[in-house]
Amino acid sequence: MALKDYIRERFFPHMWCAGCGHGTVLNSLLRAVEQLGLSKNEIVMVSGIGCSARISGYVDFHSLHTLHGRALAFATGVKLSKPELNVIVPMGDGDALAIGGNHFLHAARRNIGMTAIVMNNKIYGMTGGQFSPLTGVGGMATTAPYASIDRSFDVVEIAKAAGATYVARSTAFHAQECTKMIHDAILHDGFSVVEIMTQCPTYYGRKNKLGEAPEMIKRFKDITTPIGSKAKQENPELIERGVFVEKNLPEYCAEYDKIIERAKGGA
């Protein structure tokens, strides 16, 4: 199938602000799916509420637009009932790690075969620019006019600690890298987390005086570096990109099938 076959053209132009990084994530996702050659009937996208969640409206897959923070819970039900499907869950700061934090931890702990794409723009964009668990100390927001004093979560470290078996990070600047990570995450048999740092020029960029979208995108190039690079040794403040975890452990749905067989007296 061609890339255009995976989108709902009737819903374009999209509702994201000019310069929003979420469109780049959609592009990378579609290219990954195209490379995999998946049928639209093999994919289910489950989203919650927020700027990031609107992605499910633009893809021509089976899709569920669900409750705020509960996307992974709905996705778990889909995957357990139809384990042969590729379940993709796009989330923002809140859906993933605020109201949805508990679901994130337990989906990772169970190692259920889904791909969680966490779009980290450090702000709640749709509801007015409030600070989030990913904003970090010193970040300005409508609910932190004198700067946030909350330390931010590290998405990668949380995913690793909770037991996710594929964990990667990239940025909206590194679109081809994002495509490769999403491609590999979908193929991975277990809970996959791909954090993508995206820009929000409307709220985060304006409040934090980071310039317009071009300046914010270039900043991702300047503040990140591949895992284990010499640059990281010279400047520990740089944020590492790459695949942090890739390991094989029993996948939850497969293990659940064994429970069903034992309950039937099969083993």
CA-atom Rg in angstroms: 18 Å
Rounded to the nearest angstrom, the distance between the terminal CA atoms is: 42 Å
Superfamily at the CATH H level? Thiamin diphosphate (ThDP)-binding fold, Pyr/PP domains
Q: How does the helix and strand content classify structurally? A: alpha/beta
The CATH architecture designation is 3-Layer(aba) Sandwich
Beta-strand residue fraction: 15-25%
Describe this structure in words.
This protein is α/β, with parallel strands linked by helices and 267 residues long. It is globular. The model has no long low-confidence stretch (mean pLDDT 94). The termini are far apart. 38% of the residues lie in helices and 17% in strands. Helix 10 links the parallel strand 7 and strand 8 (239-246). It has one domain (14-263): Rossmann fold (3-Layer(aba) Sandwich). It is built from 11 helices and 8 strands. An 8-stranded mixed sheet has the order 2-1-3-4-6-5-8-7, with helices on both faces. GO terms for molecular function: oxidoreductase activity, acting on the aldehyde or oxo group of donors, iron-sulfur protein as acceptor; thiamine pyrophosphate binding. This is 2-Oxoglutarate synthase (Beta subunit). Residues 49-196 form the Thiamine pyrophosphate enzyme TPP-binding domain.
